[in-house]
């Protein structure tokens, strides 16, 4: 699981969960996998991502250094090549391989195996 | 040909052996690639912008690979962990989530610039467990899909419905969830080549439906269509001659975008003296 996906994932499918966001990351194993840098894409995603969640996730995994310390990114950050490169690494290159995601409202855990979060739930949980 | 949907739930049908067999089959690769290219065309994404897309029933990543080749980023959801493991082994560039579309899509509102699904949603018509109610599962699926798409974006499904009723039920549930759009039948006169696409819009209902393919189209610039768009994003097209504009307009018409009529002036330089 890359952090771009974590930034979008919720546990709202669970019965009685209101926002189910952000999911807490417990990482047992994470890896850095190089990916092509596309500044256009990162600039586009900046408008979509929840930066606070991204920062926290990166911090949990020990990769926050170099990220702007702010709640919301401003114009300047979006045009800064170094910032875009750092965000590229955080969004697309860091991957959680083993661990789990925890629903902030119910504590329900979703295991991550082989890099894939398991969001399947039992019929009773829906 | 027997239908895999008849053999039991998808997570059992797509077991380790089937997942490997499926992904190594050249004929399947070719078919899924073509279907995805057509779905991508119907998505009508903004020109030359890398987008974040959702691939529903992404399997081992054959459809997703075509999204990557066209310069897009994607997340995929599939119910078969074996299919997803094959995707990991083949080092797809997209990100993968194990999930059942009938339980709803687990993403926050407005996450994706578009969604595709290739040869997968007919599975929603199945009753694989006592507790399964297909209509309820379809409703859950389409309402959550509507929410996770950015406003104005589209979802395109290539599907193999078993009966006309199944197609109608799926379309009905999609409309109930707020989508507009409908079904496009490519090559309707050929039993072999005929393909169905459910083309859904989140925007206003006055969007023109894309044109279906009939097989009589003039073959246009295949080379351009199949080369990796990655490079193109970097060094944006400089030359915009008449043919380039005509090709682009034809592409946009097939995507169902409103395009001005071609005239003898199309692509001509405007004279400076005004
Ligand atoms: C024919 S394969 C297509 C895979 C991929 N889209 C491609 O083009 O190669 C159909 C896929 O749909 C998945 N599928 C079936 N029912 C599903 C469900 N309820 N939720 C998510 N995926 C499902 C299957 O596991 C399988 O991987």
Automatic annotation (TrEMBL), chain A:
It holds the Pfam family Trm112p. One of its GO terms (molecular function) is protein heterodimerization activity. One of its GO terms (biological process) is rRNA (guanine-N7)-methylation. SUPFAM superfamilies: Trm112p-like (SSF158997). Coiled coil: none annotated. Gene3D superfamilies: 2.20.25.10. PANTHER family: MULTIFUNCTIONAL METHYLTRANSFERASE SUBUNIT TRM112-LIKE PROTEIN, UPF0315 PROTEIN-RELATED. Belongs to the TRM112 family. This is Multifunctional methyltransferase subunit TRM112-like protein. It comes from Brachionus calyciflorus.
UniProtKB/TrEMBL annotation, chain B:
It is found in: Cytoplasm; Nucleus. Keywords: Cytoplasm, Methyltransferase, Nucleus, S-adenosyl-L-methionine, Transferase. It catalyses: a guanosine in 18S rRNA + S-adenosyl-L-methionine = an N(7)-methylguanosine in 18S rRNA + S-adenosyl-L-homocysteine. Residues 200-271 form the 18S rRNA (guanine(1575)-N(7))-methyltransferase Bud23 C-terminal domain. CDD domains: AdoMet_MTases. InterPro entries: Bud23-like, Bud23_C, Methyltransf_11, SAM-dependent_MTases_sf. GO terms for molecular function: rRNA (guanine) methyltransferase activity. Pfam families: Methyltransf_11, WBS_methylT. Its main location: cytoplasm. The keyword Coiled coil does not apply. Residues 54-156 form the Methyltransferase type domain. Residues 244-274 are annotated as: Disordered. Residues 245-265 have a biased composition (Basic and acidic residues). It comes from the Eukaryota. Gene3D superfamilies: Vaccinia Virus protein VP39. S-adenosyl-L-methionine-dependent methyltransferase that specifically methylates the N(7) position of a guanine in 18S rRNA. Requires the methyltransferase adapter protein TRM112 for full rRNA methyltransferase activity. Involved in the pre-rRNA processing steps leading to small-subunit rRNA production independently of its RNA-modifying catalytic activity. Important for biogenesis end export of the 40S ribosomal subunit independent on its methyltransferase activity. Locus-specific steroid receptor coactivator. Belongs to the class I-like SAM-binding methyltransferase superfamily. BUD23/WBSCR22 family. Heterodimer with TRMT112; this heterodimerization is necessary for the metabolic stability and activity of the catalytic subunit BUD23. Interacts with GRIP1. PANTHER family: 18S RRNA (GUANINE-N(7))-METHYLTRANSFERASE-RELATED (PTHR12734:SF0), METHYLTRANSFERASE-RELATED (PTHR12734). This is 18S rRNA (guanine-N(7))-methyltransferase. It comes from Brachionus calyciflorus.
